[in-house]
């Protein structure tokens, strides 16, 4: 690239297009809806890839500052479609299978790598890959009817799917994660809240509104600082305490150079609420 070649500008969330899931932008919040309610919103090869590409594109969507993931029709996601995914997988070669499992893992990587906080709004069935999508989100709200199952062993597969053995223990603890991943049993909503998987429970009619309200509150905050927080939560899994403290010192020093930090100080002095701009 020559010095005269202009850099591409940031993408707008409203310009992102999807065919297999619903995507909309409300203010600074993007909403992903898994939309096959007649089958409890299962995933297909196409919707896996589309979700991966959507979260990858959000890295450049500076106008979207938080994301909500939900499902249509009273359920979150029933996992991979039995007829459109599970059946074909039984006939694939090892290279084809590995391409698929790497692609599903890339969805989790994309969710963890996008700078926006991701809020999952979980109602009803949340199973298999659906449970993974909820797990890979930053925050999780649910209804009392939510039932979450990492049911891979129920179909003869290992519980180590899409990062579950790395991420789930960090949310609910090693012993509880081991139970869920070995047995494939459903975790009830109240149990999930007690274990720390769900941040809060809401009535079904209030769930999406609560998720949007949480996402809006995050979107109104210092988006650069939120992105830094998310990045450090991810990176520090592989760091010792001394390395983590040094990494956080550097991260915080960077945030102290932002205009949002100055705005917060000036607002405090003036006894008013700060308005963050993300710069």
Textual characterization of the structure:
This protein has 279 residues and is an alpha/beta fold. It folds into two domains: 13-219, 2-enoyl-CoA Hydratase, Chain A, domain 1, CATH 3.90.226; 223-270, no CATH class. 47% of the residues lie in helices and 13% in strands. It contains eleven helices and nine strands. The chain has helices spanning 45-57, 82-89, 94-113, 129-136, 164-172, 174-183, 189-195, 204-219, 223-235, 241-255, 259-270; strands at residues 22-26, 29-34, 66-71, 118-122, 125-127, 139-142, 147-149, 186-188, 200-201. It has a six-stranded mixed sheet with strand order 1-2-3-4-6-9, sandwiched between helices. A three-stranded mixed sheet has the order 5-7-8. Helix 1 (45-57) packs parallel to helix 3, helix 5 packs across helix 6 (174-183) and helix 9 (223-235) runs antiparallel to helix 10 (241-255). The chain is globular, with a radius of gyration of 20 Å. The protein starts with 21 loop residues before the first strand and ends in a 9-residue tail after the last helix.
Give the integer mean of the pLDDT values: 91
**Molecular shape:** globular
Number of self-contained structural domains = 2
Q: What proportion strand? A: 5-15%
Return the CATH class of the largest domain.
Alpha Beta
**Ranges with pLDDT <50 over ≥5 residues?**
none
**Percent of residues in helical segments?**
40-55%
| Structural category | alpha/beta
The end-to-end span amounts to 26 Å
Radius of gyration: 20 Å
Specify the biggest β-sheet.
6 strands, mixed
Order of helices and strands: EEHEHHEEHEEHHEHEHHHH
Q: What's the oligomerization state? A: single chain
